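Today's session is about reading a structure prediction critically. Students often jump straight to the picture, but the first step is always the sequence itself: look for stretches that repeat, for charged clusters, for runs of hydrophobic residues. Only then move on to the predicted structure, which in these notes is written as discrete structure tokens rather than atom positions. Here is the chain we will use throughout the hour.
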Amino acid sequence: MVRVGLTTERLVRAGAELADELGFDRVTPSELARRFDVQVASLYSHVKNAHDLRTRIALLALDELADRAAAALAGRSGRDALIAFADVHRDYARAHPGRFAAAQLRLDAETAAASAGVRHAELMRAILRGYDLTGPDQTHAVRLLGSFVRGFVALEADGGFDHSPPAAPESWTRLLDVLDSLLRDWPAS
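Below is the predicted structure for this chain, in token form.
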């Protein structure tokens, strides 16, 4: 019998909170069942298995990030849009490290195509249109932007920048300026 008040949405949100507290890799149905003080079997009326739970947390994180990025980008273009987009991701990763990790989960093609990951790509491409990048150059630039944000955020979270000055926020600002300059002066293919 399903415990009163237990819903898929509550489980996924609680799983996202657990991810932020313990790390995404430590979110399991067993851990979630402990949080709700129920038997693990009670969860399977709402999620199929651990993979389904993790996928749903990833989808939640992608939705949250896309909503925040869209709001931050509204009315912005060029450098301002680039910085707003990058800052949203960095701020989200700092506030929700487990969810940010979840947003990196590799999804099957069908799930990915129906996810907010598509919105993320559209938002990045919209930013890059402000730099007059199209076709393959735009795809290369999307990959560069994604790699920069994900890489910097991961290194910062792991303490990779703690050993020497300048402080990470100063590097973040400087590197975004360099990225803006590179995008404006993108070499012709």
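Discussion point for the tutorial: The first helix runs from residue 8 to 22.
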